[in-house]
Design a protein that fits this description.
mainly alpha
Length: 182
Amino acid sequence: MSRRTTRTATGHPGTTAAIAVGGALGTLSRYGLTSVVRDGPGSFPWGTFFVNIAGCALIGVLMALLLEVWVAHRLWRPFLGIGFLGGFTTFSTYAVQTRGLLDAGHAATGLLYMFGTVAAALVAVWLGTHLTRAAVRAYPRRSRGDRARDSPPEEDAEDTAAADTTSGSSSQHTANQRGDAR
C-alpha cells in the first residue's frame, strides 16, 4: 500500500509552484509582446520570432549567471529557466506558423522562418552566454571561480564560513584574522 505525498517528481513541492508561477508570468509576457507586433497573412511572424530569440538570449545569460556566478536559491533556476523562459518562448507556435506559411504557398518566407529561427536562436544563446561571461570577467571578485580561488583550504573552509556569516567580512579579512591569531 503506497502513501500519498505532496512531493513532486522533481523532489520538492515548492519547485512545482515556482515553475507554475514562472510559466504563467512568461506566457503573459509573451502574449503582451506578440500583441504589439501584429503579423499579416503570409508575412514573416516577427512577434514569435522576437520572443523566441529573446528567450534564447536570456537563457544563455541566466545559465551563465546561475552556474558560474551567483549562489542562488534553489528555486530561481526552475522559476526563471523552466517556468518563465519556458512560458515566454514557444516552439509549438513556431512550428504551426511555419506549417501555415508553407501550406499557404509562401515557401520562401516559411523556409526563411524555419531555418532563420533555429540559427538565430543558437546565436542568441551563444551571445547571451559569452557576453555574460565577459561582463563577469570585468568584475572578477563576484564570480564563483574567484571566490573558490580566494577561499582557504578545505580544512579551514568550515571555520571561515562560520566567521563570514557571523561577521559579514570577506574571506581575505578572515584569513588575515586567522594569521594574526597563530
